[in-house]
Amino acid sequence: MKPTEDRVEVLTVGHAGDRLDAYVAGHSDLSRARVQALVADGRVRVDGQVARKSDRLEAGQKIEVRVPAPEPLEAKPEDIALEVLFEDPSLLVVNKPAGMVTHPAPAHPTGTLVNALLAHTDDLSGIGGKLRPGIVQRLDRYTSGLMVVAKSDRAHHALSEALQRREIKRLYIAASWGHLSESPLEVNAPIGRDPTDRLRMAVVKKGRHAVTRFRVVERWIGAELLRVTLGTGRTHQIRVHLAHIGHPVVGDALYGIGWERGIGGKARQWARMLGKRMERQFLHSWRLSFEHPVSGELMRFELPLPEDLQTCAEWARKECLS
Prior knowledge:
Blueprint: E1 7-12, H1 20-26, H2 32-40, E2 44-46, E3 49-50, E4 62-67, E5 83-87, E6 91-96, H3 113-120, E7 144-150, H4 153-164, E8 169-177, E9 185-188, E10 191-193, E11 201-203, E12 211-219, E13 223-230, H5 237-244, H6 267-277, E14 283-291, E15 298-302, H7 307-321
Parallel strand pairs: 7-14
Antiparallel strand pairs: 1-4, 2-3, 2-4, 5-6, 6-7, 8-13, 8-14, 9-12, 10-11, 12-13, 14-15
Helix pairs in contact: 1-2
């Protein structure tokens, strides 16, 4: 198929009663929102007729979904402020701010860390291609903190292999709702795509092996400040594991929205007040250590909580003591 042609998916309805958008999302790699957008554009037909997202399906009907080919993307340099903590000919260590996407994607073609990096230096490893040059690891959009970026292919290969061998140590600070049953606590649960919502990850039986370790460093009225160590590096891993054990990250709009309303007793009002103060998820990459891919020197970096998270933590401590 030529890259400019639509991708056509044909589904046969197995049972009656489902809404069109829910059925297609559950039987394809498309999210429900994406299906609804395709329906609105007239790109979904049922038995040859243009469909509506709320149509109820009957067994045996044929659904044709025409997915337009993605427009080719190529990251361009953009003059975006970038805090570089370390740089040499092999690599950079940067502080990614909350709200910045790591690399371009159809939903975020500009304004990313990669766009900023391309303006900062002409030397980035080409291993990640045109959209992810130099990117060895990623941070979620609303997670702040330390990232290492490769400037040479040699460094990229070495850092990627070190990451797979778990020789790059990444420690995070997070705040989670409620109180853990024990500390330290290890969560060993496989993570994969959520079968009911393609935009989310979840603990699923056939997911990829994932291990996260948590240690409580401060106990608040209705939440806790945690030190988090990654044993593996799966998408949304910390957020998914904390949500899985019933203690989602404070301020997490995908896995923990509204969770504070479930806190009872004297902590309920406190939790609501903390929730209102959070403008993003309380998750920060605060320590990063690895062996330099060329010199062999042990590199170690620490980055304190950014102002927004520090302000919320100070409020939580003060309220605990009042």
